[in-house]
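Document type: protein sequence-to-structure record

Subject area: structural biology

Format: plain text, a pair of labelled lines:
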Amino acid sequence: MAAKDSGGGGRVFRTAVKIRFFEADPAGVLFFARYFSKAHEVLEEFVPAAGIPWEDWFGGGRWIVPLRRVEADYRKPLLPGREVEALLAVEELGRSKVVFAVRFLQEGGEACLVRLTCVFADKEKMKPVSIPPAVREKLAPFLAG
């Protein structure tokens, strides 16, 4: 896992993702819903790599960060038994929400783009809250320009 400049003004988090046999559908390609779990795996690697304690994001402390929306644009099938590159960038950094773009690359091209929209919320009131300043500071360098 590594971060690098995207060329568009923000850093990009890079990691490798293994496509497993059991994740394939009968046609022998990654089952469409698995793209979402793969994108979440990338997010789980990104959070501590960006300097945000895993427990702060996923541990359900003072605030929670649930997914509010997920969407995917499928371009090429991902095949089991291969390792593909995944790139994560922040597309939007709002008051209480952050939109991540996770791109899966295969053989030099984009196989899929998954967008994960997360919202920061008060754990007890279940109402949106502002992204904590320390977290915003860690996310900002990954904001696409």
The beta strands are 2-5, 11-18, 63-64, 67-74, 83-93, 97-106, 109-119, 121-122.
